Amino acid sequence: MVEKKKSGYWLTHLGLILGVLFIFFPVWLTFVASTVTQDAIIYPPLPMLPGTEFFENYANALFRGSPEGYGAKVPVIKMMMNSAIMAIGITVGKIIISLLSAFAFVYFRFPFRNLCFWLIFITLMLPVEVRIVPTYEVVANLNLLNSYTGLIFPLIASATATFLFRQFFMTIPDEMVEAARMDGCSPMRFFFDILVPISKTNIAALFVILFIFGWNQYLWPLLMTTDPDMRTIVMAIDSMIPTGDDYAHWPTVMATAMLAMVPPVIVVISMQKFFVKGLLESDK
Amino acid sequence: MEKRVFFKGWWLPALLVAPQLLISFVFFFYPSGQAIWNSLFLPDPFGLKTEFVGLDNFRFLLSDPYYLASFKTTIIFSTAVSISSMALGLYLAALADRLIKGAGVYQTLLIWPYAIAPAIAGVLWLFMFNGNIGLASYYLKALGYEWNHTLKGDQAMFLVILASSWGRISYNFLFFLAGLQAIPKSIIEAAAIDGASFWKRFGTIVIPLLSPITFFLLVVNIVYAFFDTFGVIHTITSGGPEQSTTILVYKVFSDGFVSQDLGSSAAQSVILLVLVGILTVIQFKYIERKVHY
């Protein structure tokens, strides 16, 4: 900082605190709403401080779903499991196939190498939302609707991670592979004993980004899953808010919203260093 | 850049790229090809057979007032989301960059909304602005302003823009902060010694040095507003009222899955495909510039 005027210092903090409050406010309201009774919500205004129903509402959301007569009745615990399986499946799957192909592109010369590279490069361009209808048909024809395989695999087809690893492998000094070859090290031995261990930080950074990407998927699970047992928490919350005249059971809905936010937020905050690195380097 | 030293053999590398290529073919190239192919056909109303119509689907789309309206909606929506979330991100980053101590604490407090799914962000803001029970609509009513985003298109638009920008501030904040911290302090100090005020320094030194990152963020945010905001729109407005918040990607979904108009939906996919292609090329052209400083 260049100047050290006291007033400017406090104004800086004030500005930042206002920003933080704007970011926190909707989440705070959601938390408050998840700890009060239905009556406290449907006769506005909502109180600003948490109520007494915390355990009741979260137990309802997790194990029983909304009470009788309020929209869909779905316990959240199963959906959180589904979300976790999908998020981890996407994360691990993407990291493994990208590590393998980046290794091939950087350390080998093989026929059609450039063609393969460009084919993968093109997949960078298309989010699943664009090709949603034909992808749905492919998955339906493979009999993968309502399955974890169907939830996970179409979202693994993207090249971001491959590029990140390729970029990183390029910066590894050639002496490493020279030394390994001189000692009679096979390619796969080099991959597992040297390349993967020195990629640890990059793997962790990608893990955070991809976990959030996977957990927060909305449109794909919405189309894919008709079986209530296969729903993920992020997509299912929409079905808990009925349209028309009937009320949603808001305390349960808001507890579900909190439960949908908590896992990815914990991942971001506990792995903040890797998250920042992953975000700044992978761009998406 | 190529590596000098490499392993021999071709079957091992072929095996190594096989999983990614296979998945790309099954879930990427085949469906994309299918979208292009379907865009040239028109299924009859009973879905029994399809007829080759060439570019008629595109011709029809580009003269369809609803599609053109959706284009306009998308442009307004993505411009508003990009500019508001970038402005707030830059504002907060500029403040945090002024602090010697505590910037890290604010960073932690500001970046976590990145982890919140757009659909969940939609639910949070929907709850605040719900016509019967929402806190915001309650106080707006007390002030004499009638809030009903299920009937009024401009209010619905405002709400989806607000919800989409809110979750995006953290991303822009993080990139702007990294950009600001990469500017050498000596340049700023030299200008300060020459008597340039904070705003003068910000306008003539900081903004120009940030321009590559700003451009990069603009492209990334537009891509975000085009595609990732589907969840926000689906939870808050479902594209309504009267299609006033139907952005292009939402229209692909509603025409393809809700109204089962497959030819038109495929043609829309192809148009989006071209748009994303252009945006990605622009982004890659500038990616080298981004790392420069």
SSE layout:
The complex is a heterodimer of chains A (284) and B (293).
Chain A: H1 6-33, H2 38-42, H3 54-64, H4 76-107, H5 113-122, H6 132-141, H7 148-156, H8 160-170, H9 174-182, H10 187-198, H11 200-215, H12 219-224, H13 233-236, H14 250-270, H15 272-282
Helix pairs in contact in A: 1-14, 3-14, 4-7, 4-8, 4-11, 11-15
Chain B: H1 11-38, E1 41-43, E2 50-52, H2 56-63, H3 65-98, H4 103-111, H5 118-129, H6 135-142, H7 153-166, H8 169-181, H9 185-193, H10 198-228, H11 230-236, H12 248-258, H13 262-291
Antiparallel strand pairs in B: 1-2
Task: Summarize the structure in words.
The complex is a heterodimer of chains A (284) and B (293). Chain A has helices spanning 6-33, 38-42, 54-64, 76-107, 113-122, 132-141, 148-156, 160-170, 174-182, 187-198, 200-215, 219-224, 233-236, 250-270, 272-282. By secondary structure, chain A is mainly α. Chain A has a single domain, classed as MetI-like (MetI-like fold). In chain A, helix 1 (6-33) packs across helix 14, helix 4 (76-107) runs parallel beside helix 7 and helix 4 (76-107) crosses helix 11. In chain A, 46% of the residues are buried. In chain B, strand 1 and strand 2 form a beta hairpin. Chain B is mainly alpha-helical. In chain B, helix 3 (65-98) packs across helix 8. Chain B is globular and about 75 Å long. Chain B is built from 13 helices and 2 strands, in the order H-E-E-H-H-H-H-H-H-H-H-H-H-H-H. In chain B, 73% of the residues lie in helices and 2% in strands. The interface between A and B is large, with 100 and 100 residues.
